[in-house]
Each structure stands twice: as structure tokens, then as C-alpha cells.
Amino acid sequence: MKRGKLTVNLDKTNHHVCLSRQALALLRELHAITGRSTYLFPNQRDPKRPISNNTILVVLDRMGYKGRMTGHGFRALAMSTIKEQLGYRHEVVDRQLAHAPRDKVAWAYDRAQFLAERKKMMQDWADYIDALPPPVAQPAVRPARLT
Q1: What percentage of the chain exceeds 90 in pLDDT?
Q2: Maximum Cα–Cα distance for the chain, whole Å?
Q3: CA dihedral defined by 98, 104, 110, 116, rounded to 10 degrees?
Q4: Which residues pair with 8 in a beta bridge?
Q5: What is the tally of helices (H) and strands (E) in the chain?
Q6: 27 vs 23: CA distance, rounded Å
Q7: Can you tell me the distance from the alpha carbon of 9 to that of 87, in angstroms, rounded to the nearest whole number?
Q8: What is the pLDDT of residue 10?
Q9: Which CDD domains does this entry report, sorted A to Z (predicted)?
Q10: Mean pLDDT for the chain overall
């Protein structure tokens, strides 16, 4: 991960994840905790594997969001808010979320990555989140015990 861009290989095509200053700071902080692990969130029982999909659901449940939010729900929330509140084009948000064109012809010819726009979008998104007022009432938080 250099200069706020992480390259991930999905389906044998490189996916570039543009990161905000805030995200980079959090990742550096997390790295101090996880050390030299391959994963930011390693599996507790086997650090050579990532946490399971179910772990995210368990954490959300313990935070009081059961039935109201899922891990994938954050992606939907981000897409809708970035388009409606920040005014970004669907294609740009779609590429950031690693959505592939559904049409085989579009997949073969449309290789636009929109990297400059995505980098600005992710910084705008992080700044938008930072500017949100604190919630009036937060759900009850139980100590998380990741398994």
C-alpha cells in the first residue's frame, strides 16, 4: 500500500482501492496492533487466515445492530450517500466497490478505472463522515469478543 492506493487482485484483474488520509491513519494504527500479519483482521484461531464473514455480523449484533445492518449494508449506504450527497457518478462509485460490468461486451472494452476521481471521492467521503454530527443516542455496546 503506497501513496493511499492498495492493489487487490480480484478475479485475476487488479482492483485499486483509493484510500483517504483518515483511512491510511487508521490502517497504520491497526498495523501497530496486528504487526506483520498478512491480514488487517486475522482469524483469531489461525492468523494465516482472515476473519470470517460471520465475524462482522457477530460484531454488529453485539453493537445492537442485529437485523438493522449487515457488512454489505455499509457498501449500499456508501454508494447511495456518495451519489446523492456528494454528487459522484454511478460508474465511479461502482469501480471503487469493485463491481464488474455485467455485460460481456462492456467487460471486454470498458477498462476505465477513474483513479483520480476515485481518490478525490474517497477523501470527500471521509471528510463527509468526519463532519457528521454525533448520534443522539447510540445503541448499547457489549464488549466484542471476536471468534
Answers
A1: 33
A2: 49
A3: 0
A4: 15
A5: 6, 2
A6: 6
A7: 28
A8: 46
A9: INT_P4_C
A10: 83
